[in-house]
Amino acid sequence: MISSQPLSPIHGLLEAMHPLWSSETSEAKRVIRIDQRDEERAAILGLADLSHQNRAGAKGRGTAEWLSKLGVTIPSQANSWCPLPSGGLVARLGNTEFLVENDATLVEKIMQTQRAPGVYPVLHQDAAFGLCGARVNELLLQTCNIDFRMLDAQPSKVVLTSIAGVGITILSKTNGKYPSYRIWCDGTYGIYLWETLAEIATELGGGCIGVDAVQ
Amino acid sequence: MRLPPVHGEWIDRSKIITFTFEGKTYTGHPGDSITSALWAADIRVLGRSFKYHRPRGVLTMANHDVNALMQSTERLNVRADVTPLVDGMALTAVNTFGGLQSDKASILGAFSRFMPVGFYYKAFYTKQLFPMWERMFRTLTGLGKVDFSSPRVRTPKNYGFCDVLVIGAGPSGLAAALAAAAQGAEVLIVDENARVGGSAGYIGCTDSERAELHAAQLSEVQAHPRIRIMTSTYAAGYYADHWIPLVASDVMTKMRAQSIVVATGAYEQPSVFRNNDLPGIMMASGAQRLMHRYAVKPMQKVVVLTANADGYRAALDLAAFGVEVAAVVDLRAQTKIDPSESESQVNAKGMRILKGHCIAEAIAGKQGKSVAAVVVARLSASGEAEVAGQETIACDGLVMSVGWAPTANLLYQAGTRMRYEKSVEQFVPDVLPAGVFACGRVNGVHTLTARHADGRRAGSMAAAHAGFGVAELIEVAAESECPTHPWPIISHSSGKNFVDFDEDLQLIDFHNAVQEGFDNIELLKRFSTVGMGPSQGKHSNMIALRILARLTNKEPQQVGTTTARPFFHPVPMSLLGGRGFTPERRTPLHAKHDAHGACWMPAGVWQRPEYYRVEGQSRLECIHGEVAAVRTSIGIIDVGTLGKLEVIGPQAAEFLDRVYISKYANLKVGMTRYAVMCDESGVIIDDGVVGRLAEDHFYFTTTTSGAATIYRELSRLNTMWGLDCGIVNHTGAFAAVNLAGPRSREVLGTLTDTDLSSGAFPYLALREAKVAGIPARLMRVGFVGEWGYEIHVPANQGVALWEALMAAGQQFGIRPFGVEAQRLLRLEKGHIIISQDTDGLTSPLEVNLDWALKMDKPFFVGQRSLKIIASKERKQQLVGFELAADFSGTAPLECHLVIHKGEISGRVTSIAYSPNVGRNIGMAFVTPELAKQGTQIAIRITNGSEVKATVVRTPFYDPENLKQKETT
């Protein structure tokens, strides 16, 4: 029996770690836990795969209005994001481009709705990672020339930049003791970026974690 | 020898460290540098000079000279003066022949007259002797020996940020940091030394007042919450927008600051006199570093050569640590009316002071490995040592404190305009760039209290520039005496009075260079190599400049300085290399290819399977096996690397009509069409397939390597044209495979409900359907010349698609095929590959794409150029060719030249042996006269011989395209 269950761009790497997988078959597989030391690594520098999350996107001059009509509250400023009531988020990646990450219901609705004039749907098959822990900024300083102190001061900002040579979208999700970030990149760069970040994270005393440990 | 405990010493006497140097075992303490431990063990020869292999000892005890360069196992050119001693180190001096003590190459010194300045260049004048000189120079030159088996050290390269970066943690730098932090700025102090404090930690520390001032400043800095400190780290260069590479032993940090305070101090300068490089002759600051940092007595009996108050302080320090001061030799005939405080103290202690004197020469001890005495002479008004009345003073050491040269490299790199300030005989900043500030000795301020004030001034201004507080106006007192002698250079008829210790350049070399016409500072530098050694002229550039000024009757300001470029201080290759970031894209099927034994090849930023290994078969057999599977049954190739773009909107068709050479406004929904893109000059830059999903919606592919650049270019054009359409890059969002072969329809039919019949789904049609339950876009394409489908699905279901197709195709022996098989298959069909069968000058007309070229369109990119090209005679034409069926020799390769009448008449772009055609087939550019079918062409192969080929019609396989037509 061949399963058509969606897989993360880094599925092979995750599988090699023999993690604890989610049991739902109706959604993309996700790693719940790598091992018993997930929380310990997360406190120092945790790297989690969040590619399984449902996502939709659109761009074009009509997109803001189109999304609003679908009941999606959008950020008023370019390069900013806001949370959605059901736990997801909407990121405004420019004046007219949006990324919605949320539960399947809203995402499906966006993807199935007939596009309006000036709306160009974007299929998001990104690799999405979570980074958290006390030393996360050290990792970012090794890979990116952005001063992420700026994001701490303006937590609603979305930054489009590159880390380790790969174009990414990043935002701060810090709301606890340690900094926490979400990163999206083109899925075909996922393996390279994961391996690069995991290597540095491990050098700094952290490493890969499951989604349950992401702060 | 080691002194009794010294207040503030850096060493930990409670522990002993053992190491070897040149095969002998020594001990030291944690906190010692390699040199301090050896000097404490009374080792005086630490290295050999580069050219004459002269014995060398301590010169600066700083990270500035290279007298003591060593090799520590695979680590090359370790700077022993500042490299911390580590237990178990095994050290050798670099650049010796037979060891440090009995270096056979020291004989070269006897032939110095045959190696005048510029002899390197002159040696190569004679072509016949070039190889001999090259071999000799390669043998004799070089420093450490590279061990090519050394493991790669993957050091991180950090980015860093701060409001104010203070470079230099001496008195002025620390004062600047405190002032900036007081105004609210986040301050980073960086210093090359292991501890902060700079010269305040070793110059005049026997003076309790100075010591207390120093201690108070240190405490304040260390306690300040907004001040960070990085020690053992040097700022190696300046780049625009205040980017500074900070280099530590195991990491480079690319620091970005809002403003910068350069408090880098100054290099103490040597005096030039005969034998001024003997072990035991050192800078006064070098001796003071030895005493105060490492508690090492530099010598037993010293002569102090000075021209400023610092020299007198050095004399006091040396005496305080039990060194017998035989004399203080002052180049100045008289200092000023009131002697400096330190001079008065020296006087009061009854030390002998010889004013208006110089060192005429140093007398070498045994084998030139030490100094035994110095010859002191009166200094004439013209700066020469007077012969009459010379006195020889026995000593085992001489310290020099005759002046300072500003450590202004970063200021120069930042674009600072410098001026020569006569009152301090040094260059000082005249006009600083915005956000760059200077203070302390580099700013021409040498007195301790003035340096504090100057630091506060610069720190306050830097903070204000970064947006913190208001710049405070602080008065800085002028220097009461000139700290630098303008001519500490004594000629000698027997030479060996060195100006550049790295390159063994003597005073006479400069005379000769100028005489030969190299009388410009940039020319002089290159001809003489002054300042081009590892020290980068820290102790020679200023002296060279003074010499050139005197020889050309100019002022130092007129001579100017050489161009300062980053890095001004050598940076280890491991740090420059660091952790390399080489992004690599992998399709969602990467793991599947691995599982099938893919042999990988790079394709731009992608990795693609070249072919799939089969046990017991050669590479070529594997490739031919894959080709056979496609031709006879079914094969599958991952084409997910193709660029996959969409253009949506009412003017989408017009947009495509403008960017491609063919027409798309008349393309029916559900159909595809080959697409060729040119640049403005009519040169082919990309190709692909355009499919129409709806009236206002097109899905199209680009070449693998072109995806990113084509998307950028199309976005640029769309912005410029302002058409009502949008472009979306879905390259990474879709997985794609090409299912090809006579069995492909049968296999696909088991996985989809879509009607795959020729009528419902004809050649070049496009359909949206579900395959194995996965939403897919299907295109009937024929790149490899068989019935086939390109199937595009969301990337996260690519693996599921692959598994389904492989399972369904199993009954027909489905084989994955790689890039090499695809190349051969398409060659058989005569299909070109952009950038393989075209180059940066190829127009569609030259590669037989006239049929795709719709010149009757109102406009497309490159149209105007193509009209011009079409009106001119063609220079080349792409043709198919084949070798004789019975050809058995060495076949030509791609890029081999076509030769006609002894001239180059073209080149091979593609060639391979085709099992289906039964001979070698290929494509080549040839001149139009050779393009006619049946023409014999000659291809010159690597060994120079020529292979005959015949120009033939393409395609080589299925010329009537019957494979795309329904036969049942």
Structure description:
The complex is a heterodimer of chains A (215) and B (968). Chain A has helices spanning 11-16, 38-45, 63-69, 104-112, 136-143, 149-153, 190-203, and strands at residues 20-21, 31-33, 46-49, 54-59, 80-83, 89-92, 97-102, 120-122, 127-132, 158-163, 166-172, 180-185, 207-209. In chain A, the strands form three sheets. Chain A has a six-stranded mixed β-sheet. Chain A has a five-stranded antiparallel β-sheet with strand order 5-6-7-4-8, with helices on one face. Chain A has 215 residues and is of the alpha+beta class. The longest helix of chain A has 14 residues, at 190-203. Helices cover 27% and strands 28% of the residues of chain A. Chain A has two domains: 10-52 and 125-213, Gyrase A, domain 2 (2-Layer Sandwich); 55-122. By secondary structure, chain B is α+β, with helices and mostly antiparallel strands. Chain B is built from 23 helices and 47 strands. Helices cover 23% and strands 26% of the residues of chain B. Chain B starts with 16 loop residues before the first strand and ends in a 16-residue tail after the last strand. The model of chain B has no long low-confidence stretch (mean pLDDT 95). The interface between A and B is large, with 46 and 46 residues.
The structural class of chain B is alpha+beta
Q: Return Rg of chain B in Å.
A: 38 Å
User: Which oligomeric form is depicted?
Assistant: heterodimer
CATH topology of the largest domain in chain A: Gyrase A, domain 2
Alpha-carbon Rg of chain A, integer: 17 Å
Low-confidence stretches of chain A: none
The count of β-strands of chain B is: 47
Report the major sheet of chain A: 6 strands, mixed
Total helical elements of chain B: 23
Record field, number of beta strands of chain A: 13
CATH architecture heading of the largest domain in chain A: 2-Layer Sandwich
Pairing-aware structural class of the strands and helices of chain A? alpha+beta
Order of helices and strands of chain A: HEEHEEHEEEHEEHHEEEHE
Number of helical stretches of at least 4 residues of chain A: 7
